[in-house]
Amino acid sequence: MRRIHFFLMALAMLAGSIAWMVPASGQADKAAPPIYLTKMPSGFRDWQLISVAHEAGKLNSLGAMLGNEVAMKAYREKTLPYPDGTIIAALHYTHLPNAENNTVFGDVQSYTPGPPSNYQFMVKDSKKYAATGGWGFGSFTPEGKAFTDAQMKTCAPCHAKASRDGVFTQYAP
Amino acid sequence: MRRIHFFLMALAMLAGSIAWMVPASGQADKAAPPIYLTKMPSGFRDWQLISVAHEAGKLNSLGAMLGNEVAMKAYREKTLPYPDGTIIAALHYTHLPNAENNTVFGDVQSYTPGPPSNYQFMVKDSKKYAATGGWGFGSFTPEGKAFTDAQMKTCAPCHAKASRDGVFTQYAP
pLDDT value at position A32? Predict the structure, then answer.
């Protein structure tokens, strides 16, 4: 019993050290599994639409979720879990009242995208990202700069709470 | 003066009769210019994303605007007026709080598409739709049934108030 306890403690310390060392060194060790995306998937702005979303409150965001061909096929055929090669893109914009539209409509009712806030991605690779439910996560500034590892820590545990293979977004018909 | 008055009255009556006759006969006279779309453009759900929108108030809608190839090229190259062949689709869904997402987030912040409300289209054909700024309008139920002419009357005069060739939606980068 004591041995098991010691083993678990050592494991926890080791895990803590790794989590600490990776962002400190600035890049993951070559032998270590990849953690987050470092580059945006190419051509994502041309992908087809999965759905749209409005996040009120602090996020104050209007979003469009797009999928590559593998993602769209899986969504339309209701394939779960999502097959390897699936990529889901979430394009987030500031949720802003549209002055021109509201003048025409005679009411403050129209909200449209302001500047992009970030572009986020989920890439399915069940081997490469086995530690995070098979999903690799990536968040980027509108200029394509990857978020820091510290900023990325919350992605996987939060998505693990989503039913349907860790994916919040459902297909809009 | 009396003659002019009579002429305008006759014109109004004639217009009223035409508006009455067209839906009654089920199809427009062959010689008359087409008024509204009677069929949804095929394949529109696969088109690329122009932008997203949230209409609060009575409309309570989350929308995605998609464009066919001509539309996407025009948007990206900032071509105005839009060339003939442009089709812009607006997919409207009920703006609903998402219970699953909000449970995970611990706050009522996430709004996602409920059932589709309607699918709307603008088709550019500067000759065919010369009377309405070169745009042909169409609104359809989610099942693809065209709105009545009476329901469609407000489209053109409202869009005529939008700058950028009668189009409200701008490209989201």
Answer: 62
Q: Write out chain B residues lying below 8 Å of A116, CB-based.
A: 172-173
- Please check whether residue A8 lies inside any domain of the structure: yes
* B106, closest residue in chain A (CA to CA): A158
Across the interface, do B111 and A168 touch by the CB < 8 Å criterion?
A: no
Looking at the structure of chain B, the number of domains it has is 1
Q: Is the Cβ pair B172, A57 closer than 8 Å?
A: no
Q: Is the C-alpha dihedral spanning A24, A30, A34, A40 positive or negative?
A: positive
**A104 and B54 in contact by Cβ < 8 A?**
no
User: CA-CA distance, A50 to A93, in Å (whole number)?
Assistant: 16
Angstroms from A7 CA to nearest CA on chain B: 33
The pLDDT value recorded for residue A26 is 44
Are the C-beta atoms of residues B101 and B110 closer than 8 Å to each other? yes
User: pTM of this prediction?
Assistant: 0.82
Identity of the amino acid at A173 = P
Q: What is the CATH number of the domain that holds B121?
A: 3.50.70.20
Query: Within a 10 A sphere around the Cβ of A103, how many other Cβ atoms?
Result: 11
B122-147 average pLDDT score: 97
* Structural domain includes residue A138: yes
Q: Determine the structural domain holding residue A17 and report its residue range.
A: 1-29
Do the domain assignments include residue B19?
no
For residue A110, which residues of chain B lie inside 8 Å, CB to CB? 53-56
Query: Of the ranges A17-26, B46-55, B65-74, which one carries the lowest mean pLDDT score?
Result: A17-26
**Looking at the domain assignment, is residue B24 inside a domain?**
no
Instruction: Report ipTM (2 d.p.).
Output: 0.81
pLDDT in tens, A29-54: 455 667 899 999 999 999 999 999 99
Instruction: Identify the closest residue of chain A to B43 by CA–CA distance.
Output: A48
Residues in chain A: 173
